[in-house]
Structures are given as C-alpha cells and as structure tokens.
Design goal:
The structure is a homodimer of 253-residue chains. Chain A is α/β, with parallel strands linked by helices. Chain A folds into two domains: 150 residues, Rossmann fold (3-Layer(aba) Sandwich); 97 residues, Orthogonal Bundle (N-(1-d-carboxylethyl)-l-norvaline Dehydrogenase, domain 2), CATH 1.10.1040.20. In chain A, 42% of the residues lie in helices and 15% in strands. Chains A, B: This is DUF2520 domain-containing protein. Chains A, B: Pfam families: DUF2520, F420_oxidored.
C-alpha cells in the first residue's frame, strides 16, 4: 500500500483523488485544499485539511496547483526529505523545494471537472531525482494508468508545447468553426462527426498523410472564396496563416 | 430501387460507390472514370466507362470530381433533364449545367482512400431545385447514412469554411505537434489520447466551455517559455496568433 497526499483542489487534483480512491493498492491519506468545500464530494471530511500543520506522513505528496504557485506551495511544506511531485507540464522539477526529494507526475490529458475520463487511458509522464523514487512513482502510475512514460524536464517542456498545439489551439479552432456556423444559421452538430474522424485518423495515419483540403491541394479558387466569406478579421488572419503554413509544408517534401 | 451513376474516381467517389453497392435499395448503374483502373476494385468491369457516349439511363447522376472540374464535367454530359448532383462543399448548385436538373449531395466528412469509414455516420448535406428531386435525394441519403440534412448553397459554403477550420487546420496543428515531438525526441504517441479526448469533449461541452491552457488562463509566464522553446519562426507565429485569439475571445465574454 502506497500512501499519497494530494495538495490542491483543481481539475487535475480532483481527477487524481478519484483515481487514487478507486485503487486498492493506493491509500489517499489527505487532501490539502484552501477551500475545503471544493473537494468535499471526493474525500471523507477528516481527510481534508487546509492547515499546513495538520499534514500526516505519506509516501508521496502530489502538488497539483496553478503553475506559478508550485514553488511557493512547495516551500511552505512543513516537512523535510519526503517525496514531493508536481503535476505540471511546463514547470521544471528543479523548481520544487530543496527541502524534499523532487519528482514530477504529469498527466498529459485535458481534464475538466465536469467531464469524466477513463484514467487508465491518461498518459502519465514521470521524472524523479533518484532511481528508488522513480520506482515508487512508477508503481503509483501503473496502478491508475496503462500509459506510463519516463520523461525528463526538457522533453516534458516540448511535450507541453505540443499539447498546446494539438489540444488548446485545436479546441479554439473548434470554437471558430462553431462561431461561423452560428453566424450562418447552420447547426454545429453537423461538423461533429468530422471533428471526431479527423482526430481518429491520426491513430493510423501520420498527420502529414492525413492532410486534406484546399490548402493541401493549393486550390486558390476555394481559398479565395473562403476568405471572401469570412467577415471577422481575426478569423481571416488565422485562415491565411494556417493555409500558408500547409502550403509551405507541402513544398518541404 | 433507385438507380445511380457515379462520375469520378477520387476519394469521395470511391466511398460513395462502396456505400451504394452495399445498399439493397440502391442500384449502381455505372461508374464514369477517365482511368478505369482506379475503380476496377470497386465495380464490375462492364459497369465502368470512360466514354461519355456510353452513359445508360439512371435516376441520379452524382458528379464527384475536383471542384474546378465540376462545371466542365457537367457540361459534357450528353443527356438532358436528368437529375445531376455534385458532391462539393464549396461549389454552388447553380454551377451545374442548365441542361439537367441540379442538385447537391455533399458528404461532410474527411474521406481518405486508405481509411475505411462507417458511412452511416457521415453527415450528408442535400440541396435540389425542386421538391420531388429533393425527396429522391433524401431516399438515397437515408439509405446510406443516418445523418441527413437539407442545406442550401449559402449555408453549405459556411459549413465548408468551418470544416476547413475544424478538420484541415486542426490536422495541420497535429502535424506541428508531431514536428515538435520529433525535434525533441519524444514519441508523438503520448499525445494521441489527448487529441482523441479533445475531440470527444465537444460532444458534450461547447468549445467555449471546453477551452483550457495557458492562453485561456492568460498565463504569460508559460506562454513566454513556450515561445522561447519554439525554434521555427512559422510555429512561433501560429502560436502567437492563436494565443492572442484565445485571449481576445475571453475578453468578449
């Protein structure tokens, strides 16, 4: 039984609390949350603390708070030489406090409070200062996920940037598609099968091979029709830049 | 039994031939293809023609060729007053020849020759000049798909632009994510669950509500770290523009 305390109450913290609670080989010791109510539905009342003096002993402390709060939260922990991991894609392991053994436990997935997820499918990217801590992290990760990777801080940074492109920016393009539909009284639902298929295609094809559309075909007639239809300057600018990028990429081949 | 002839041999034509052939209530009369070999695996040899004088009678002729070839292909048809539909998202119905009854049969999906698809899930957007032709199109569409929509030429244009954003541009962002991973020796596979989940999220959440990430949080520290990590000017430009767009969108709320 590996004992774990979660520090934080946001999206990632809540999904971790859930995944750990469901697992026979892991024990949720405590949840540290400034606002106890935010996690009251996820853990027994006596396990939820908001006072740093109440921390009990645990094998692993996972800090899951906003990126810029990680150093200060790590620094306020009242204990020494414990294993402390953060869950951020963009914060270096070194930014944790020197008082404790540093590690990273980064779930590479888009986690929303109001959307359940099969945690077994969430890739977990692990890093630790020493081998025995890494082994413990692996045991925890393998207990809750089928996709566990050892990723160093440099690799994690590049993964996080990639994730912004393939998830945050992609979702924003969905939003723009939705706006264009609304403007022209077309139900956005018609586009959902296309959105799903576009994502699933790259499970078997490389994005390079999966590319279709007017930019890929250098079909300037259609491209110009599209630009004429767009009324929003920001949408036009995004259309032009991404079209140019697809065309330039075709030239590189 | 509704009889249909397909004119063309590209991705969309091939998927249509497949879907029609599988359907008991539809009859594939002929396939017109300049290069007969390209569809030899999909239809009996005697049904494949490449000479316009060999067209037989059919209830519906579907032109599925490159957008800019649609008007000339429609004009070369040697018959009059037949129902002729094209399959394009961006060509107006009016661009078909006045010699025949005009219609549109637009499958809104990304179709690749080397990837099977469940055609029942492909949204079909229909348009016709008169009610009885529209009824026939609906019968054909409902026989091969569960998602049939009546969409006029103006609406279809906006749907096509939206589709470019949510599919072609999205796939290009997958490509950029893949490039960043390759550059930093990280397996792109780690990102695939995130890509799939990002797409499935909008089945239950609006893209607006599903948005996460540093731009949404106006987390300039992370944004600047990401820009510093990107070595490619084109990637930087796309990062900046989409980040600005997400931030500006947040201000509109």
């Amino acid at each position: 039984m590996i004992s774990i305390t979660i520090i934080g109450s946001g999206n990632v913290a809540q999904h971790l609390i859930n995944a750990i609670s469901k697992c026979d080989t892991l024990e949720l010791v405590q949840v540290f949350a400034r606002n106890k109510d935010s996690v009251a539905h996820l853990a027994a009342q006596e396990k939820i603390i908001s006072d740093a003096s109440q921390f009990k002993d645990a094998d692993l402390y996972i800090i899951s708070v906003a990126d810029d709060a990680i150093p200060s939260v790590a620094a306020m922990l009242p204990f020494q030489n414990k294993l402390v991991a953060h869950t951020s894609g963009s914060v270096a392991m070194a930014d944790l406090s020197n008082e404790n053994r540093k590690a990273v436990f980064y779930p590479l997935q888009t986690l929303s409070k109001n959307k359940d997820i099969n945690f077994k499918e969430v890739p977990l990217c692990l890093e630790a200062e020493n081998e025995s801590d890494l082994e413990l992290l692996k045991k925890v990760a393998n207990a809750i996920s089928d996709k566990v990777f050892e990723i160093n801080s440099e690799q994690r940074k590049s993964l996080h940037v990639s994730a912004v492109f393939v998830s945050n920016f992609v979702n924003h393009l969905y939003h723009i598609g939705n706006e264009i539909c609304n403007e022209h009284n077309v139900p956005f639902d018609i586009l959902k099968p296309l959105i799903i298929e576009t994502a699933h295609k790259i499970e078997t094809l490389s994005p390079q091979d999966a590319q279709t559309g007017p930019a890929k075909r250098k079909d300037t007639t259609t491209i110009n029709k599209h630009l004429a239809l767009l009324s929003d300057e920001n949408q036009k600018e995004i259309y032009k830049l991404l079209t140019k990028s697809i065309i330039d990429n075709g030239k590189k081949l």
